[in-house]
Amino acid sequence: MDTAGSERYESIGRIYFRNSNAAIVCYDLTDVVSFERAKFWVSELLKSEEKCRLYLCGTKKDLINKDRKRAVDYHNVTDYADEINAEVFETSSKTGEGVGELFFKIGENFLKENEVVDTNQTREGFGVFSMEVEKKKECCF
């Protein structure tokens, strides 16, 4: 469920994550308030879906040290992730950095938990390929 942090969707949130096996909870690496909102959504999710596997995903990694400073401390995120048994990823939608690894890990964990395949297989064994993003002319960022 992508609510873009909007509070008006809080009341219907449970409908969207009912019976979820996995959830990617995103926050903006350049906005500490977004990380606090992500914590809210994690607590809402865990109230009804205790066994849902969590992935904390810091976004806009491409902006760090380029246009903006990191506002969310990596160690704070990993400490919180340890508390809630989540995995941490940092990604960039613009460049694709970290996105493939995030989805690979979700698939790998699902397969392991459901004993679908031999867990010793490699990425190639799962048919996952690295994602290359063509550099486009910057206009809006």
**Roughly how many Å is the radius of gyration?**
16 Å
Strand order of the largest sheet: 1-2-3
Structural class: alpha/beta
Uncertain runs are 124-137
Instruction: Determine the N-to-C terminus distance.
Output: 25 Å
**Which H/E pattern describes the elements?**
HEHEHEHH
Largest sheet: 3 strands, parallel
User: Mean of the pLDDT scores?
Assistant: 80
Number of helices: 5
By DSSP, the count of extended strands is: 3
Q: What is the global morphology?
A: globular
| Helix fraction by DSSP (H/I, runs of at least 4) | 25-40%
What characteristics describe this protein?
alpha/beta, globular, three-stranded parallel sheet, 5 helices, 37% helix, 141 residues, 13% strand, single chain
Give an overview in words.
- This protein has 141 residues and is α/β, with parallel strands linked by helices.
- Helix content is 37%, strand content 13%.
- It has 5 helices and 3 strands.
- It has a 3-stranded parallel sheet, with helices on both faces.
- The chain starts with 12 loop residues before the first helix and ends in a 15-residue tail after the last helix.
- Keywords: Nucleotide-binding.
- Belongs to the small GTPase superfamily. Rab family.
- One of its GO terms (molecular function) is GTP binding.
Give the topology, please.
Layout: H1 13-17, E1 22-28, H2 32-48, E2 53-59, H3 74-84, E3 86-90, H4 99-113, H5 123-126
Parallel strand pairs: 1-2, 2-3
Please give a quick description of this structure:
With 141 residues, this protein is an alpha/beta fold.
